Amino acid sequence: MTHALALTDAEIAGIARRLDRPVVLVGLMGVGKSTIGKRIAALLGTDFVDADEEIERAADRSIPEIFAEFGEAYFRDGERRVIARLMEEHHGVIATGGGAFVDPETRALILERGLAIWLDCAIDTLVARTARRDTRPLLKDGDPHEILSRLREQRGAAYAEAQIHVLTDDGPHNETAYRILEAIEAWL
Predict the structure, then answer these.
(1) Which of 32, 33, 67, 140 has its CA at a distance of 20 to 30 angstroms from the CA of residue 129?
(2) In a domain, 2, yes or no
């Protein structure tokens, strides 16, 4: 298979063999963690799991319901336990919720046992992407551009602790996935 970036199937297989920890995607909501995570997992020949979906399954409630009923602190505690379990189960690629990596304990866990990749893009792109779904509790009350800008400002220092930082912007998801694989190869 060929593409704009120069990794061959053999090189990708080599990356997969050398990768001894889960790839954990972090970043703001709407940056493409789930969509790109599925592509990376397919290229590496491993599985993909979305931590938010696992949290909802474990709680038998939606994330907005958990936030409304129990609050963010309760949610973050459960989120950390679910991410720890997913990492212990040796999942290959894990997408986390936008706030997961901001929690100091969760961030320490991911940095110790995983390879954190901060997916990042322009705020205008995030606003357009998040407008497609009405399931984002933090965007319910206010201007999405202002809220996402504030979240990026608040969370940027935490995200910057990730071992790898990749811009996603509006290019094809496959190109972003290959850029991430090249960054993983350089990190290895």
Answers:
(1) 67
(2) no
Is 77 one of the annotated binding-site residues?
Answer: no
Sequence-distant (6+) residues with CB within 8 A of 18 are 188
How do residues 61-78 score in pLDDT, each as one tens digit?
A: 998 899 889 998 999 999
In a domain, 1, yes or no: no
Tell whether 76 is in a known binding site.
yes
20 labeled part of a ligand binding site: no
Annotated binding residue at 31? yes
Residue 94 parent element (H or E): strand 93-95
Task: Tell me the whole-structure pTM to 2 decimals.
Answer: 0.90
Q: How many domains does the chain have?
A: 1
The answer to whether residue 178 is domain-embedded is: yes
Q: Residue 62, annotated ligand binder?
A: no
User: At 85, which CATH number?
Assistant: 3.40.50.300
Would residue 176 count as lying in a domain?
yes
Is 21 assigned a ligand-binding role in the annotation? no
140 labeled part of a ligand binding site? no
CA distance 26 to 95: 7
Is 176 one of the annotated binding-site residues? no
- Examine the pLDDT at 127 and tell me if it is beyond 60: yes
Containing domain of residue 105, as a range? 9-187
What are 113's two structure tokens?
Answer: 């046992």
pLDDT of residue 2 exceeding 50, the answer is no
The residue written with tokens 């779904």 in the block is 133
* Residue 34 labelled as part of a binding site: yes
